[in-house]
Every structure is written in C-alpha cells, then in structure tokens.
Sequence to fold (467 residues):
Amino acid sequence: MLKKSFGAALLFFFAVTGTVFSQQYLSLEDCRNLAIENNKALKIATEQERVAYYEKKDAFTKYFPDISFNGAYLRNQKNLNLINSAAIPSSIDIPPIAIPPAINYPGGSVDISDVRNQILKAGELDIKNVWVGGFNLTQPIFMGGKIIAYNDLRSYAEDLARTMKDTKTTEVIMEVDQTYWQVVSIANKKKLAEAYVNLLRKMDSDIAAMENEGVATKADKLSVNVKLNEAEMTLTKAENGLSLSKMLLSQICGLEISDQIILKDENIESLPTNENEAIPNIDEALANRTEVRSLELATKIYGKKEKIAQAEFMPNIAFMANYIWTNPNGFDGFQNKFGGMWNVGVIVKVPLNFFSSTAKLNVAKAETRIKQYELAEAKEKIKLQVNQEAYKLAEANKKLIATTKNTEKADENLRYANVGFEEGVISAADALAAHTAWMSAHSEMVDAQIDLMLCKIYLNKALGRKL
Fold:
C-alpha cells in the first residue's frame, strides 16, 4: 500500500512538473522574435537574399579575364602520307646501253621497291596518337556597356531581395500582433464571463432565499436560472476560444500547440488613449514603405535590362592570349613529341541581327514602363491607406472613450440594481437587465481597447514605421 501511494505521488509530481515546465510566459516581443526565428517563409527569404548576394559576386567577375585550359586526345586509324604511292613505281625499265669497248648493258627492268618504300616512309606522318592542349585567356575590353549594366542589375537585385525579406518580416509581425491581441481580447472576455457568472450565481442564491420567504416568484427564479445557464455557456465558449487562439499563436511562433502559454498582457486592465493623434505624414510613408522601395528597385532593374538590350547593337571587343601544345608538332620538322607556342590577338564581334535586337529592346522598355505605372499606382494606394488608417484610429479613440464612460455608468447602474434587488425594491427582471447591460458595456470596452491597439499597429504599418 505504501509503495502504491509513493508511486502515485511520484507520478503526480512528474505530471505537475511537466505542466509547469511546458508553460511559457511570453510578451509581445517574445512572440515576434519566436515567429521571426521559426517562420519558413522568412527562412526562404533569407536564402533568396543569399542567392542574390552570390549572384552579385558572380557578376563582378565579368570584369576580369576568363582563363581556361582545354585538352584533347585523338586516336586515328591511319597516318598521313605526303607522297602518292602511285607516283613512285616499284621498278623502272632501262633500255640497252652499249658503250664500246668495255660497257655493254643489255637493258631490262630494275627493281627499286626498297628505294620506293624508303621514299614513301620518309613522306609518312605519324598521326595515330594526337595530343592537343593549351591555356586560353580572354579579357573583355568593350562589351557595349553590358557588363556594367549587369553588375548594377545584380546590385539592385540584392537590395530587392533584402527589401522583400523586410516586407515578409513586417507581414509576420502583423500576423503575430493580430493573434496576440486576439488572445488578450478573449482572455479578458473570459474573465468578464467569469465575473458575470459569479454575479448571476449570487443572484440565483439570493432569489432562492427570497422565493423561500415568499418575496420572489417561481418565474423570477426560472428567469435567473436561464440567464445563469446562458452565462455559463458563454464562459465555456470563451474558454474554448482562448485555448484555440493560444494554439494558433503557438503555431505562428513555431511552438508546439500543446504548450501552455501565458501572455504578459492577458491581465491588462486599460489602454492609454490619445485624442489628439498627430496628422500622418504621407511623405514618411512613401519614404519608409518597403513596397515602394521594392517597386523602385524593380524599375531600376528593368532600366538596366534596357541597357543590356541596347548593348546588343554595339560591337564587342576582347583581348585574347593562348599557349598551345601539340603532339605531334611541326615546329622543327614533323616530330612525335610535345611542342608549343603562344599567340595573342584581338577579337571584334559586330552584331548585324538588328531586327531581333530591336524586339528585345522594345520588350525591355515596355517592362520598365509597366513597373513605373505600378509604382505610381502603389503610391496612390498608400496615400489612401494612410488616410483611412488615420481615420480608423481617431474613431477607435473616440469609441474607447465612449465605451469607458458607458462602463462607468453600467457599473454604477449594477451597484444600484444589486442593492435595490437585495432590498426588494427592484424586480428580478430589472436586476437581470442591469447585469446584461454591465456585461455588454464591459465587452464593448474590451473590443474598443483591442481595436485601438490594432488601429495603431495598422497605421504604423501604413506609414512604414517599425512595428
């Protein structure tokens, strides 16, 4: 029995310890950092930024000479013969020669095949095994401005990748903030629902006592019971909604959805209001928005593509230097050994395909104009968005002030209703109405507080400020 008790206690200890360790106390900044650290889209954007960086490095190498080594081996079936074998006979006919008194040659055919073979062998070149190798150096001198434009393009592309990453980071932060304050809103509504349930439970207990004394009717008791059941159902929904919202926030932050998280602002009571919000500066938004920066860089990139397309009309000039080895070689007669030589020169390429080059240039110009139009349209939309968010923020401030006043009145009304109900001068229906008005006023104030926080976030995003 003692062993079982000890084992149960040990199991309970580990269960409680695990629950405590799995809980995390997170502020808004903690949630942002976790989301930025674990977000897959941001990791992709980081790798894209790294790709753009190395592409810029690769573009810079185009200024320098291109050095390469080339080698080849060739096995031939036959050798080369410089002398036609049919041109040399195997024998020659010599007519009779009579030179008196000592020489008398009767004439005839003389075999010269040995001489013929030696002559043919002297004209044979051994090329059955051919080896060729060499170093090549090509240094661009003038490429029509193509290399300079390409380097500028890659530099802009790197800036664009960095800006796109900043845009994605802002989007992640926005998603975190929205979910964070949603959790705070539901947590406060849950506390509100708990307070409402406690109020109705006390009222249910009071009206039960009043019914026993004959002061209240059965209908009054049933009305309170119905409201209490509705309040308990609302509390259950709030608890479930809070759990699901925290799971969503955990998923965004890269945590396990089973982790128990507690937010720093869950117990927030009130948020500061500012009735005199500064008029937003449109120029600040145009200067800070990453979308504008991205479109400006995209316009510059397509402008450089125009330069590259224009370079198709320009001649290309390059310096060339080589050192070549061959085996066999003919630098000192024909020899079956390696021999080499160097050469230098200038390569000039003059393009004549003006029709296709003109088409490419026109395409590049059209794409540049498209980006210019998109930039102008984005600026117009940003101006409208900034004004809209400023109006929404001003409206949210006014709404919070109004709901705060309503809450104060609802609190006072509830206090009088509770006292009057206990004294028997206010009916159960009027007391329930006061409770309902109190619940509604506090719920609207929570919504107004969260709306104000979100409107401030949206306005800062519209202005391109750091969130």
